Amino acid sequence: GNAKLRYQITSGNTGGVFDVEPEVGAIFIAQPLDYEQNKRYKLHVLASDGKWEDYTTVTVNVVNKNDEAPVFTVNEYYGSVTEELDGSPVFVLQVTASDPDKDADQEALRYSLHGQGAESEFIIDEVTGKIYAQRTLDREERAVWRFVVLATDEGGEGLTGFTDVIINVWDINDNAPIFPCPLSCHGDVSENSVIGTSVMEMTATDLDDSAVGQNAVLSYRIVGILDVTNSKQGGLAAFSEMFSINPTTGTITVGLGGLDREQIESYLLVVEARDGGGMTGTGTATIQVKDVNDHAPRFIDHSCQARISENAEPNAEVLELAAEDRDTGENAQLTFSVVAGDQEQKFYMVSHKQEQHGVLRLKKRLDYERHSEQKFNLTVKVEDLDFSSFLHCMIEVEDYNDHAPVFIPHFLSLAPLPEDVSVGTSVARLVASDSDSGQNRDITYSLSEDSDTEGLFTIDQSGVLSVARPLDREKTAQHQLVVIATDHGIPALTGSATVQLPLLDVNDNGPEFEAAYSPVVFENVAGPQVVRLNQTSTLLRAMDRDSPENGLPFHFTVPPEYRYSNDFYLQDNLNGSATLTALRTFDRERQKEFLLPIVMSDSGHPAKTVTSTLTVTIGDQNDHAHVAGEKHISINSHRGRMPTTVLGKVYAPDPDDWDNKTYVFEGHMPR
């Protein structure tokens, strides 16, 4: 259809004298000719196949006679010529025509060749009508040539007849088979495919004529199979029976069972195509073996164990597991999970499918003090789309020092202890407990320094509290001791207990003067007189630092040698007080003070008796005049210079010593 031509006269047809058969191209007379009116017409003719077009010019001469155009013996001539012939020109065929005009000169006919390839690939002898191929032809470029041959009478000046000439180019086997993929054709097949499974079409083309002869009839065979996987590493060719090819269609199929991608991932096939003339061409086919999930994943490690502190935060990494799967692609994407040994769901797995490893992470907090959480025997599963494997992982939880020591009870009230208890006496035993393990539960006992500032007590590492130094109830009647238990964890934690220890009084303190008495008896006063012990009272009173049962009532007396003294008399009032009486007149200038031993007893069992000295001062009266005195002072000066210097008190002799004297210079005061 693409070679169907239509013809049309586009210009030069004056008066519409001519017309053309649109499908044949025959120009015919449509109106009567008038030689006298127009002797020549120059027609422009268009030939078109619907897409492409060409023009030619047809000159029509009108003659005054010669009414019949030459006629060819046949309307269409067929010829043939073999391609690639040398020795041109090569005779193809001969056309012949005759002139029907009466008495026409048949020798005056002249032939001409028209169409694509005329005068180039083909020529015609204008006298004989013989057509020659003057160039070597290639059927693969053009298999059929079409021409129009014109026969003109009167030596080429008269009427013209025409005929069609069709020349076929005969094929020779000058083209080898060619495969369409220049470098390599590609196909794929699943591993473990059965014998006869179609892999790919390996079809070649041959440019020779397939309609005539065997030049383009192809047969196929495999001439070599190479293991591409190992050839990259210098491997050897694989056995050639792994694949087979249909010799007629070129379809490659599986020739042997046992395709295993894990051993060989791809094959390189060399295929030969041979035509009927014996020419061959080769092509290569790369066949990829597609993975089938036929291998179970395996853990790389055969054992698994890890340790984690109970203090670890949720999502903390516990361990990382790696697995391998000899398959590839989605068949080698691995998922990890914990399937047993974790009833309380303390752990979870994070899968990195592409990288084929998983991370075991902590999901909930751990408590080592719970026996069930000290050790986990986990079963971890790794799986691909179809297969799975298991691994047992032993996870040991390490104790963290998260429990402080605890005393039970944390407050201990002890029975009163005599204050004169011996040093080293055990008072109590305290025991603390710690829920942690190992060194986190090892405990060291100590006493808070704030509760025992004087170090009166000590505690050993078994928790026994003992007296370390003598006790004194009068100083501290009750001790509040804080016992501290410190574990050996890092960081260490502490717990405490309070021990309340009251002391029983022992009569170890005698009576004491209630106040610091400083009695004064003035000289020159006649006795007897009651001595005033201070500004407010004439009573001598005592106190006792012991408890009341070892105190009042007190008894007062003086040593026997003082009982009959002429100076003072002590009266026990039998109510915890006593009265002192001065029996005579005193002279301060003879004796300024008297030291009286006062014997005081308390009511303890046994009673405690002590002797305290009461100092009685004789008060001074100004009963003596002072006399003249003199004083010699020696001083040193340095080079006549002397700073202001205190020289001393003025010496003024006077038996009295409580009087107040004033001093003034008498007469001129030296500078």
From TrEMBL:
Q: Which PROSITE patterns match?
A: CADHERIN_1 (PS00232), CADHERIN_2 (PS50268)
Superkingdom is Eukaryota
Among Gene3D superfamilies, the record links this protein to: Cadherins
Give the Pfam families listed for this entry: Cadherin
- Keywords of this entry: Calcium, Glycoprotein, Membrane, Repeat, Transmembrane, Transmembrane helix
Q: Where in the cell is it found?
A: Membrane
Q: Is Membrane tagged as a keyword?
A: yes
Q: Does the keyword Membrane apply?
A: yes
**Annotated PANTHER family:** CADHERIN-3 (PTHR24028:SF328), CADHERIN-87A (PTHR24028)
Its recorded name reads Cadherin domain-containing protein
